[in-house]
Design a protein that fits this description.
It is globular and about 40 Å long. By secondary structure, the protein is mainly beta. A hairpin with a 4-residue loop joins strand 7 and strand 8. Strands 2, 4, 5, 6, 9, 10 and 11 form a seven-stranded mixed sheet that branches. The chain has a four-stranded antiparallel sheet with strand order 1-3-8-7, with no helix packed on it. It has no helices and eleven strands.
Length: 124
Amino acid sequence: QVQLVESGGGLVQAGGSLRLSCAASGPTFRRTVMGWFRQAPGNEREFVAGIRWTGGRTKYAESVKGRFTISRDNAKNTVYLQMNNLKPEDTAAYYCAASRWEVIGQTQGEYDYWGQGTQVTVSE
């Protein structure tokens, strides 16, 4: 069984930065791809960024390109989401997810395991 534990959320002013972490455990073949999603109140959960453990290929939502960076530390089994130039519209609960598929999916259904979420709030 794969377990994912997020950390690093908090309150930040617009223009500021935060780094989220996701510590993963469990069989590596069940978590070929790691993704970050977010969900604001009243909204659907949306894809933010994804990365493959092997090779480090990445994919981003258009809304965060150039501001967010996803990375991984294979030795620590940890995935990071560096968020810069944060905007109030980035406010949401952020979730780490793991997929056993080879392709970086952008929908919830393509991910098999989820963390508990961490709140990010960006003030004006």
